[in-house]
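# step 3/5: fold
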Amino acid sequence: MNIEIKKSIKPVNYDDAIKFLENRLIDINTNNANDLIWILEHEEVYTAGTSYNKKEILNKNINLIETNRGGKVTYHGPGQIVLYFVIDLKKRKKDIRKFITLIEKTIIESLLEFNIKSFADSKNIGIWLNHNEEIKKVAAIGVRVSKWIAYHGFSINVNADLKKYKAIIPCGITDKKIANLKEIKDLNYKDLDDKIINNFIKNLEI
């Protein structure tokens, strides 16, 4: 199956990115475009999914964009890898839960290539790890499905400004913290985006 791979060097405005994804969804639905995987970094922004609660916004002055993705409130900004996709599930299995599991597997396998062990949690969506006997979140996942085409994506904190998360209750979870990969292991993560892409494509083809 043909999948277009897109990589943006400069930070991408959040609204512009979502418009691009939604236009691609229309084109895929009319058989006028291939599926898409897009790696990018966002300018600083907070986004709220369809199940967020306004009580999760601790600083009312932040730049918050309400979106149609699943999930609650999260932060995007420099030092974070974002992978967006537009994937036609009609060409695969029409199973949203299996697709989420595929995303989780992709992130876990990619981090393992850096000898970082992580795991999914059925109660709290995202990818987690145990750092110094403390469970911390390292990746957030938010997906929407329209006409059996899945879009939006996930983000992984590499060296993000974690102080930004103090303005919100990230993903509505109060008893766990957020982590950076650089905090877990001080490595060079410049190849992480390629590993994520390769693992995602491999898992999509299984």
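# step 4/5: annotate
The chain has a mean pLDDT of 94.
# step 5/5: archive (pending)
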